[in-house]
Amino acid sequence: MQSSLSKKERSPSAKRRDAQTERSADTINKLLEATIDLLYKYGYSKFRIADVIKNSKVSRGGRLHHFATKKDLVESAIEQLFVDEISQQTKAANTSSTDVIRHAAQAISDFHSSRLYRVIINMLISTGRLEQLTDGVRDISIRSRNQIDKGWINSVVQLGFTTQESEEILGLLWSVQRGIFIENLTGSNPCNDQSHELEFVISLLNEHLKVP
Amino acid sequence: MQSSLSKKERSPSAKRRDAQTERSADTINKLLEATIDLLYKYGYSKFRIADVIKNSKVSRGGRLHHFATKKDLVESAIEQLFVDEISQQTKAANTSSTDVIRHAAQAISDFHSSRLYRVIINMLISTGRLEQLTDGVRDISIRSRNQIDKGWINSVVQLGFTTQESEEILGLLWSVQRGIFIENLTGSNPCNDQSHELEFVISLLNEHLKVP
Question: Residue B154: CB partners within 8 Å, gap ≥ 6?
Fold first, then answer.
């Protein structure tokens, strides 16, 4: 039977297709990696496809075959990073620890120091003025955040919170961490120890759990 | 007695000095107003003293007399806005309402939609990359925030919280509001109604107050 053939026994044309698929995946990875690297370093407004081709050492044809436009390339790269982030956070959220809120807070904090979030922030301010993200990136962000939250909300519900409360808890953790991130950037928080602030939120939420 | 003379009865030279002081204050106000306007619109890296002089209709000599450098002018303008903000918030904080936490949250929320905060954000991202504020502006921000917090902390202590807890509460309200501000900018919060989030924090804090 065809399906029981090992790779070695496959026909020459099937082997050729395997090799092609591998080369394709490799090309795509190189393009996405170079894209992220440039967005991370220079932001969206200075992003040029010519630089991606130069840095990734992929031919212009190779690029055009996979991504028609700059927007395509950028959105695919960000989506790829989000896929990794979702899988990592979903794994972390799948915990039976009673200290779920601390784990969630930590994971959300880690996200804010990730390369992905830096790329998004760089896109947002790339022109030197505040600007909205492209619709595509905003959609990917919202979809991904919903996916990430789903895992954590499931685990928070196990603690005894309702779904609505669990959503509110996740929303609060995101806002607080985002605020701490911005205050770190501006250096304008009078209190240097922000882990203190996180502890306070965690204790408020754990207290809330005990309220009848 | 000299001091009991009304303005009309003062000597010609004193009248001249009065007029000079008034002209000076007027010149300073025009310069600071034009500075804020340009920072608000274009950010720090595109800020030019020549534009301030053009927009404020103040002579180059008038400017040089009051502010030696671009940095002087910018820091004085931001400090002036903070003086107004501190006075406004100190007045708001001086309340006997039992709903102090809601008032504080609202005042901090209002600050984030103010022209002052927009100017600071524009300075922060003026080059199209994240950069620190100048040391002077960071110092003014921290000093002002401490002043603003002092008023609110006094009123929160009246509710029965300790000073340390009151500081933590203020820190939390600032971070949450800053996070909500950033999420509004990116449009990346899946939940559109952020007043909901604020209500949740307020209810957590009021609940915390009741814990023995």
Answer: B93
CA distance A174 to A192: 20
CATH tag for A10-210 (out of 3.20.20.80, 3.30.70.120, 1.10.357.10, 3.30.70.141): 1.10.357.10
**ipTM score of the complex?**
0.79
Residue B120 touches partner A, C-beta closer than 8 Å: yes
Domain boundaries, chain B: 70-210
CA-atom Rg of chain B in angstroms: 22
Instruction: Give the confidence band of A1 by pLDDT, cuts at 50, 70, 90.
Output: very low
Residue A39's nearest CA partner among A138, A112, A123 is A123
Nearest residue of chain B to residue A207 (CA atoms) = B208
Q: Which of A130, A177, A196 sits opposite B125 (nearest CB)?
A: A130
Q: What is the mean pLDDT of residues B196-200?
A: 85
CA distances from residue A191 to A59, A148, A185, B168 in whole angstroms, order as listed: 51, 30, 14, 10
On whether any CB of chain B is under 8 Å from the CB of A1, the answer is no
Residue B211 DSSP symbol: -
Q: In whole angstroms, what is the distance from residue A201 CA to residue A84 CA?
A: 27
Mean pLDDT of B155-184: 91
